[in-house]
Amino acid sequence: MLGYATRRILQAIPTLLLIVAAAFFLMRAAPGGPFDDERALPPEIEANLQAAYGLDQPVTVQFGRYLGGLVRGDLGPSFRMKDFTVAELIGRGLPVTLGIGSAALLLGLALGIPLGLVAGLRQNGWADHAVMSIALVGIAVPNFVVAPVLALVFGLYLGWLPVAGWEAGSPSHLVLPVITLALPLIAYLARLTRGSLLEVLQSPYIRTARAKGLEPAVILRRHALKPTLLPVVSFLGPAAAALLTGSLVVEQVFGLPGVGRYFVQGAINRDYTLVMGMVIFYASLILLLNLAVDLVYGWLDPRIRHD
User: Fold this and answer.
1) Domain of 106: which CATH number?
2) How do residues 247-299 score in pLDDT, each as one tens digit?
3) Is the pTM for the entire model greater than 0.70?
4) To 5 degrees, how large is the angle CA 72–CA 278–CA 90?
5) Which residues of 36-57 are buried (b: 16+ CB within 10 A; e: fewer)?
6) CA atoms within 13 A on the CB side of 104
7) How far is it, in rounded angstroms, from Cα 116 to Cα 122?
8) Nearest by Cα to 135 from 150, 118, 160, 152
9) What is the C-alpha separation between 231 and 303, in angstroms, rounded?
10) CA nearest to 199, candidates 130, 129, 123
11) Which residue in 104, 245, 110, 242 sits closest to 177, CA to CA?
């Protein structure tokens, strides 16, 4: 298992390098720059800024210098947020983003999988129709619509929860963002779990277990649950990363100081190094989560060997 994980990490390095190269050259190819404001700078000052950050050199030279810093663990300074490095900004926003994403993931798992199991075990019943109808709404309505509606209802009309802002140690500021992120995940997990369970229940070994007189709960726990969860686990890798990337919009709507907000601000301000740092962070996260999914897959299905 350790050897397999090591090989996968080594194989991920070229993939990450391609992502870094694509993001770097695409950003440089787009018109504009980090120092293009509404008020034009004098040519001398702009030339000094370009030289100070190495932007006056050829793009290939800039890319080589950036890779050199990346190998040393240096993501560079932010072009627009003075006195801050990209690593410092990620470190400031990461606890908020991870806290929201982790809570949304746990809520999605706690509700989505049980709802899918109930719908699958009660196929074509009222519970099945109710769960699938709710799931359809959760999938169809995007986060940027759900977030303002929740803020309007529970923040302004009812006054139960804060509409925006952040206060460390105050769970009330996390309730609406977590629910906003978790709703689509609950919907997808419920539909995926239901479909997988219905397929597993048609398997020959399940019919054999029923013929032997085993209780439905025993059949589900001992024979059907693990195979049912295989496609769910496959979905969870990119889904967990999507919770963090989905927080880009949620953090903006609710005014949370997470890394998603820095990503948006960096893109608007053409802050090259900040955007590159966010890209590397998200790409690394996706690669690591996919590795974790493969390892869990081997635990759920003994036929899969990681030699």
Assistant:
1) 1.10.3720.10
2) 677 877 787 777 777 777 777 777 788 888 888 888 888 888 777 777 766 66
3) yes
4) 75
5) eeeeeeeeeeeeebeeebebee
6) 31
7) 10
8) 118
9) 15
10) 123
11) 104
Least confident stretch, 9-18, 37-46, 49-58: 37-46
Please give the backbone phi and psi of residue 172, each rounded to the nearest 5 degrees, phi first.
Answer: -60, -25
Length reported for the chain: 307
8 Cβ contact partners less than 8 Å away, ≥ 6 residues apart: 291, 294
| Amino acid at residue number 24 | F
* 59 found inside a domain: no
Range of the domain at 219: 93-273
207 Cβ partners below 8 Å, 6+ apart? Answer: none
- The single residue listed with the structure tokens 């190998």 is 71
Residue 77 bridge partners (DSSP): 85
Give residues with Cβ within 8 angstroms of 297, minimum separation 6.
230, 233, 234, 304
Provide the H-helix boundaries in 30-85.
43-52, 59-71
Q: Which residue has the tokens 């032997």?
A: 212
**253 assigned to some structural domain:** yes
Is 10 domain-assigned?
Answer: no
Is residue 217 one of the residues assigned to a domain? Answer: yes
Q: Which candidate, 106, 271, 124, places its Cα nearest to that of 178?
A: 106
Rounded CA Rg of the chain: 24
